[in-house]
Amino acid sequence: MKPIAKITLVFLTAMHCFFAVTAQKKDYTVPALSDANSWSMILLPDPQTYVKFTRNQPIFELMTSWIGENIKPLNIQMVLCTGDLVEQNNILAPDGQNGNQASLEQWRSVAHSFSRLDGKVPYIAATGNHDYGFKSAENRATNYNTYFPVDKNLKSQALLKEVGADINGQPSLTNAAYELISPHGIKYLFVVLEFAPHDSTLTWAKKVVNKPAYASHRVVVLTHSYLNAKNEHIEKEGYKVENANYGKAIWEKLVKPSKNIVLVFSGHIGAPDDERAHIAFRTDINAAGKKVQQMTFNAQALGGGWHGNGGDGWLRILEFLPDEKRVHVKTFSPLFAISPATQHLAWRRNDYDEFSFSLD
């Protein structure tokens, strides 16, 4: 090849690389509110695969650290986590394949990740099936109360209004209600329910939701197992916990009869490296004729399946517009965003990942 031809080839290759990198950078935008007067809420999917492997634990810590850094820029008022905080609630000897961390190490890890937010922003972490029993909900014993006590995060504690009970009748934040008054004066009541809530838990929740003190509140329910990937309410699962209520029963017994439940969030579902298998969304009408927007968001088997990296760092940003009637949803990964080499992958742009809905 002649010298001039070589120079031309090198030049063209360099220009191709330059434009390719430039195009990638243009595809990335720093997360920001569409309206400076909006506020936002962050939805974290099931962390279990992040914490069961030592190698993955820094990813979840990166996610909570990113939230902490963006409290002011995104005006974050609340963080919700959909449950399955650990892979096994009480396994002493991990098998090395489905995790190389004993359960108590997993609990310490997830609690430490959330400590990045302690004293900075309120957060509510639901319990999932893996947070009970030994491996997965053989009974309703859990280490949750030890690692997420009431005084762990004073920002959350300040919003706590109602406390339910665990299966032993003891007060427990696995079932609780928190009052948040938005920057525009709209009152929200966040009600978190244990995995597959016991009949007595739903009775408690119904009494709370129907209290006159919360009649004008927008009620948000957070639980673990609720919708499947076909956007249907889950009817039944094979766990051993007694008097278990899954999505359909929660809808029929609590959400549908209510006059003020307007949002339901959950996680739980997934399939290896299949985004659509991890998410669901549906709209129904409650007893007051108001829309109930129901969203399931998870990511735990993305990034290599059940034994992969834990979910590629995906989370959701929900922006509540100043009118508090419109909500914008975006799906973002701080893991991809951290490096210029991968920033072009940091947003999921599909219509099921980036959309809006309205609140009554």
Supply database-style keywords:
single chain, 360 residues, alpha/beta, Purple Acid Phosphatase, chain A, domain 2, 14 strands, globular, disordered N terminus
Set out the fold topology:
Layout: H1 3-26, E1 39-44, H2 48-51, H3 57-69, E2 76-81, H4 103-114, E3 123-125, H5 144-147, H6 154-157, E4 160-165, E5 171-181, E6 187-192, H7 199-209, E7 218-222, H8 247-255, E8 261-266, E9 279-285, E10 291-297, E11 315-320, E12 326-332, H9 334-337, E13 347-348, E14 355-358
Parallel strand pairs: 1-2, 2-3, 6-7, 7-8, 8-10
Antiparallel strand pairs: 1-11, 4-5, 5-6, 9-10, 11-12, 12-13, 12-14
Describe what this molecule looks like in 3D.
The chain is of the alpha/beta class and 360 residues long. The chain has one domain (31-358): 4-Layer Sandwich (Purple Acid Phosphatase, chain A, domain 2). It is 24% helix and 23% strand. It is built from nine helices and 14 strands. Helix 3 (57-69) packs parallel to helix 4. It is globular. The N and C termini lie far apart (70 Å). Residues 1-23 form the signal peptide. InterPro entries: Calcineurin-like_PHP, Metallo-depent_PP-like, STPP_CPPED1.
Largest sheet: 7 strands, mixed
Order of helices and strands: HEHHEHEHHEEEHEHEEEEEHEE
CATH architectural group: 4-Layer Sandwich
Number of helices: 9
Shape: globular
Q: What would you report as the Rg, rounded to the nearest angstrom?
A: 21 Å
Q: Beta fraction of the residues? A: 15-25%
Number of beta-strand segments? 14
CATH homologous superfamily annotation:
Metallo-dependent phosphatases
Low-confidence stretches: 3-24
Count of distinct structural domains: 1
Provide mean pLDDT, rounded: 93
Query: First CA to last CA: what distance?
Result: 70 Å
Which structural class is indicated by helix and strand composition? alpha/beta
CATH class, anyone? Alpha Beta
